Each structure stands twice: as structure tokens, then as C-alpha cells.
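Quick question: what would this complex look like in 3D?
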Amino acid sequence: MLGKIAHKLGRWYIKRLCSIEYGGQVFAPKEKVAEYSFVFRKLAATRAIDILDVGSGTTAFPHVLRECGYLVTSVDKIRGYWKDGLINRHFHVMEDDITNTAVQQTFDVITCITVLQAIPDADAAIASMFRLLNPGGHLILTFPYNEVEGVPNVYKLPEASYGKDLNYICRIFSGRDLKHWADANGATIADQEYWRCFTGRLWACGERKWPPGAAAVDTPHDLTCVMFRKGDE
Amino acid sequence: MMRILKSIAHRAGQAYVRKVCLAEFESQKFSHHNERPIEYRFALQALAEKRPQTVLDVGTGTTAWPHLLRNCGYVVSAADNVRDYWPDGMVNRHWTVLDVDIVNPRERVHEQYDAITCISVLEHIPDHVKAVRNMVAMLKPGGLLVLTTPYSHLHPDPNVYDRQDALYGKGVSYICRSSSAAELQQWIECGLRLEHRELWRLYTGPVWATGERCEWSKAQSETEAHQLGCFSFVKQ
């Protein structure tokens, strides 16, 4: 009886949350459509079973992965990034600092979608993620990128169109970073896409382009979607 | 006083959400790879090519797909025939799902969406042509319709779950149609132009859910074996 009442109240609470979110929608173009498209294309080509999503935040992404049939684990460094704590109503998110992870299990695929740029010690995060991958496993990453020019924190640049007041960094990685990660972790780049999401020279500079445009290594780009394979091809 | 009550309700609600999520997390079991990665990628790619701002998902059920679309920035609505397909009620904890029967919507449909997605739903609707016609009516001119459904170009089957060789689905209360070129033509005649089509082989049998599950491969032509169709159309 009490359980039933708790269930009804819980459902009412969830409906109310959903209703507030639904009613408060404003069109807000983002690069996610290109990133998720890349992730699902790559997942369809692997036969992964266990997947770790790093930095899920409040997104439904880990739940959508579960809907695809995978066994999903989701982690986020809640303290430090989420001032008022983090409640993800879609999937159970474990608190974990990926630069010093407590996760013991290993995975066939690890996804980390638009998260790495906010981690100061990105090399440690990458090393951890490779450690958590099974041999032959795949690491799928998306982040702000410029093939030739890395930037420690683009929000500090005068031409950045937003982010100056945020309490976390936004690093732009370069081709040199990718090569370093591959060499340091015995991995190869299995696939890479380049996207242009802003009209400026770098991520967050200029205005947002909608929809994001597919680019190439030698044309203007500010975002990459990349898949590493642990071990040689 | 009101603030304290609100805070208590919020904490209790969050505790409930945590409990539900944890129970789901702990009860995960691997069964098989399903076709969603193919379908979601196709739909997202089709959406990325266009410039929709408003998206309707038809037949959402309990999935988090509309929330993922919202995360891409779209203004998202979700609809499902809750009272007929979920007689005990349905709660989607990811997104508000409107109770709409796409075959017989109670309210007059009007052109309001830039895009509609309907992922692995049409096969369960007996009057699929009427469903597509209503979806077209809900689209703005030039709007995008993304459909994914069991499909074998040359082998229609009104209900694969009734087949002797069906791997699963016997005795379920809804049908699973495998559409073919004839049904595709009927959808186009609702006022659509086919933009992109992908045919995928997921089973060794002639139609959906027959034979054995196999490595996925994209069929290069209609004559190569396939059981799943992903289609994007533009409203004429």
C-alpha cells in the first residue's frame, strides 16, 4: 500500500519535471546532432556489449544506449562540476573522477561526448579510459578541435562569443594531442570526422552555424568526432 | 512554509528517481544487439541535413529518444497511442508523451512540425497509410518525415509474428507488418517525395524476425537480402 502511494507520488513528480521541461523549450541549436550521429554509426559497426559513458551529466544518452541493447555504465565527476549536485532522471550515474578512476570493470566501448575539453588533466583522463578498455575496444570522443592550433582555454580568448563567466575551462585539442594519445596508449585512430559549428576561426568564436557543416582536415573546422581502437589495427 | 514543503517534495522525488534508475541499472542483462543504432544514426543524419526547429516523435513509448533530440537543440513533442497500446497506462520518465492516436487524432491535425520521426512504430499500426497521411498533414510544407520499419522490398508480410518461422512475437497483442515496395508507394502517394533510403540485413530469413540474427550489412540494392528499411521523405 505504502509502496503504491510512493510510486504514484514519484510518477507525479517525474511527470511534473517533464512537463516543466517540455513547456520551457526554446530552439537552441547544438552540435550534438553531428556527434550522436557519429557515435551511433560507429556503434552499429562494432559488436560491443559493455559500454561506459564518461561525463553523462543530466543527459539521456546512457539510457538511449541501453535501449540499443548494450550494458551501460555511466560516470560523472559530480562534485566540482555540478554545484547543486546532479540528478539524472534517465540513468544511474556513478560519481567518479575519470582522471583517477575507481571503476574496476573493463568495456568494449567508451564514449565521452563533449566532455574532455572541460577536464584540466585531459591526458590522465585519456590514459584512464584506455586502461578501462578491453583489447581491441573502441574509445569514441568528441570535442572542440583544430588540426594545427590547440588552445588551453578558448573561453579566455577575446573573440570567444560565450563562456567568459563559466567556472570550467574549454580546451581546444589539436592533431598533436591525438597523436600523443595514440602513441602513449598503444592505440590507433580508426576514424575521424571534422565539423564546423561556428563561423569564427575556432570553437566558440563567431556565431553558431546551423546545422553544423561537415568539414575536412584542410577546411575550416572547430569540432572533431574521433574513434580510437586500443591496440594496432 | 511553502518553500519547505516544496523542498521536501523535491528531495522525495529525487530519491524516487534515484531508486528507479538504480534498479534499472542493476537489472541490466544483455539479450541481443537491436537495430536502434542504425535507426537513430539514420534519423539524426537526416535531421542534420535539414534545418528543422520543431520535431514530433510518433510512437515514443517509454524511450528517451525525444530527450536526446531535445539535447540536440530541437523543440520536441512526443506522441503515442497510450490508451490503446498501453492499457495499464504508461509513464515516460524522460519526456512528456501526449496521448495521440496517429490514425484517429481527436484534435484536428494541422501543419506545425518541421520534422517527424517514427522509429520502428509503423509496423504495429494496422492502418499504416492513414497514419502516414496524418503525419504528412502535421508537417509543414517541405517538412521531413523519417520512418524506420521492417521492410523487404519484394516480400510483404501483413504480420511476421504469425509466421511459422518467426523467431519471436507469437501471441503478442499487436501486429508486426513487414512492408514492401507496394506500401512504400502508398506512403509516397500521401504527398511525400522519397529523399534517402537505406535497406539493412539483420536476419538470415526473407523477412523481419525470421531465420537467425546475423552480422548487420547494408544492402546495396533491392535484390540483396534485407529486412529493415530506413526512409526519409520530404513533404511535397
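Answer marked as accepted. Chain A has six helices and eight strands.
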